């Protein structure tokens, strides 16, 4: 991993010169300690997207379905708090009921879940995942678990670095990244993504009650093989999430004035 270490020092020097460690989270407007800037985050997402799709689950070959997901997803993005990156939506060819997001705007929905939701509920699923991206939940989680050094190695592959040793190391990390993100987020992060979903749905002209319907569907499901998927996470419990979403909807009446 010497090449990754060299990349670490190069990026660390650039970070110190630009002072980008403490940034304002676009979803919360709070200052946070994030070493990865948006450009690096996108490269990490691109690199992991390529390896996860190759090694884990292939994309669904259905242009009509993909076009519909893109249309709804981009509508949600326009209502989101984070528009400086380009979002990529993809349907994965799996019967499981799941969805997740990689850093940098790479959002996935499984075909099994897509088949269980209507347009409004699909918008709710995508809004929840866009909420995670906007709040930088995945990059913060990976930063804490993997460290800056390894993440910069992943970013270099995303930038087109062809070093076979580096690519091999990043390939080995794909399973780790997939497992980390599929286990879900903290209670605080999940509740925030739900709140952001309600906000984005409302601002994009969708029915925010669709978020409740999605959670009620998922409340009855279990992840395959004992795996607790991100959107199926029971931390917090679904009952609490549904309750909080309903409360958030009540703060957003039709006149657009948010109740305090």
Describe it for me?
With 260 residues, the chain is mainly alpha-helical. It has one domain (2-250). Helix content is 59%, strand content 8%. It is built from 11 helices and 5 strands; from the N terminus they run αββααβββαααααααα. It has helices at 2-18, 38-55, 63-78, 111-114, 119-134, 137-146, 148-158, 164-182, 187-204, 209-219, 238-250; strands at residues 22-24, 31-33, 88-92, 99-102, 106-110. It has a 3-stranded mixed β-sheet with strand order 3-5-4. β4 and β5 (106-110) form a beta hairpin. α3 (63-78) packs across α9 (187-204), α5 crosses α9 (187-204) and α5 (119-134) crosses α10 (209-219). Mean pLDDT is 81; it is low at 1-5, 7-19, 223-230 and 255-260.
Specify the number of helices. 11
Question: What count of domains describes the coordinates?
Answer: 1
Estimate the helix proportion, in percent.
Answer: 55-70%
Distance between the termini: 52 Å
The helix/strand series, from N terminus to C terminus, equals HEEHHEEEHHHHHHHH
């Amino acid at each position: 991993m010497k090449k990754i270490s060299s990349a670490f020092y190069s990026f660390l020097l650039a970070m110190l010169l630009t002072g980008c460690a403490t940034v304002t989270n676009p979803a919360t407007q709070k200052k946070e300690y994030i070493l990865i800037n948006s450009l690096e985050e996108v490269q990490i997402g691109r690199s992991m997207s390529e390896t996860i799709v190759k090694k884990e689950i292939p994309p669904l070959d259905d242009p009509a379905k993909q076009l519909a997901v893109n249309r709804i997803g981009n509508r949600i993005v326009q209502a989101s708090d984070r528009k400086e990156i380009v979002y990529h939506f993809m349907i994965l060819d799996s019967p499981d009921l799941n969805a997740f997001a990689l850093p940098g705007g790479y959002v996935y929905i499984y075909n099994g879940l897509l088949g269980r939701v209507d347009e409004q509920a699909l918008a709710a699923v995508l809004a929840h995942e866009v909420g995670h991206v906007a709040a930088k939940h995945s990059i913060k989680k990976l930063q804490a678990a993997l460290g800056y050094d390894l993440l910069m190695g992943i970013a270099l592959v995303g930038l087109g670095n062809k070093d076979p040793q580096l690519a091999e190391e990043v390939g080995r990390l794909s399973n780790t990244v997939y497992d980390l993100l599929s286990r879900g987020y903290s209670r605080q992060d999940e509740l925030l993504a739900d709140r952001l979903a309600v906000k984005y749905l409302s601002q994009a002209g969708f029915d925010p009650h669709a978020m409740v319907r999605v959670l009620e569907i998922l409340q009855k499901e279990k992840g395959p093989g004992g795996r607790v998927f991100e959107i199926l996470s029971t931390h917090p419990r679904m009952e609490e999430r549904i309750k909080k979403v309903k409360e958030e909807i009540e703060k957003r009446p039709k006149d657009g004035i948010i109740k305090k």
